[in-house]
Amino acid sequence: MLLCDIGNTNIKIYNDGLVQIVSQEELLSYQDQRLFYLSVHPSLQSFPDCKKWINLEAFVSVKSSYNGLGVDRKALCSLVDEGTVIDAGSAITVDVMQDNIHTGGFIYPGKKAFFEAFRNISPRLDFSYQDILKNRLPQETRSALSYGFIAPLVALVEKLPKPWYVTGGDGGLLLQYLPDAIYRPHMIFEAMKQIIQRNGLC
User: What is the pTM of this model?
Assistant: First the structure.
């Protein structure tokens, strides 16, 4: 089964258990194959020349009163009856499911965006992330920035219902501070498979 997750930053192809990041040009090399996809990229929503491709957006369903919930967040939440889904990508999205209903969520800057924001304020704040001790106040600038990124996020998540499901490119980083979390690196593809099966698309 060929699946594609088109994000704001990366395009990921899932092919029989293997996941790879591809360019737009490489993606179109699959145009003659049967491919199921979800896209949040504003300019990569439809592909008229790819007759065998199926956009799964219309088949994604989750009970929610949240206005503007992205299709990727809906898909991830559709896998969960109870708990919190944390997708650590370009932006970090946190969504809560209770009794199979999406009860709300929030969006937090991704690691790259967070540090770029400070870099734009001053060259003295041009640092990359480093691991920190979340219960000890930092004593130098690089640690202070890293603490400012991770500690508030972890504190917010710790107040939300378990189980915590972590996915996304920076998911491994969050696991260091949320040891009880369940890491599902390919959760979006798990969701797509379930959507396909539920709707008899394959």
Answer: 0.92
Tokens coding 175: 């696991």
Distance CA(154)–CA(86), nearest Å, equals 11
For residue 56, which amino acid is it? L
Within 8 A by CB and 6+ apart from 171, the residues are: 86, 87, 88, 183, 185
Task: Give the separation between CA 4 and CA 6, rounded to whole angstroms.
Answer: 6
* Residue 101 three-state SS: strand
> 3-state DSSP: the chain helix, strand, coil percent, rounded to 5?
35, 25, 40
d(CA 90, CA 97): 22
- Computed from CA positions of residues 43, 49, 50, 52, in that sequence, does the dihedral angle turn out positive or negative? positive
Q: Which domains does the chain have, with CATH numbers?
A: 2-59+192-198 (3.30.420.40), 63-188 (3.30.420.40)
Q: Which two tokens stand for residue 10?
A: 């990366």
Burial-class residue 7 by CB neighbours within 10 Å (0-12, 13-18, 19+): buried
Q: Which residues are catalytic, by number?
A: 72
What does DSSP assign to residue 154? H
**CB count in 10 Å sphere of residue 30:** 19
187-201: buried (b, 16+ CB within 10 Å) or exposed (e) per residue? bbbbbbbebbeeeee
How confident is the model over 112-170, as pLDDT tens digits?
A: 999 999 999 999 999 999 888 777 899 999 999 999 999 999 999 999 999 999 999 99
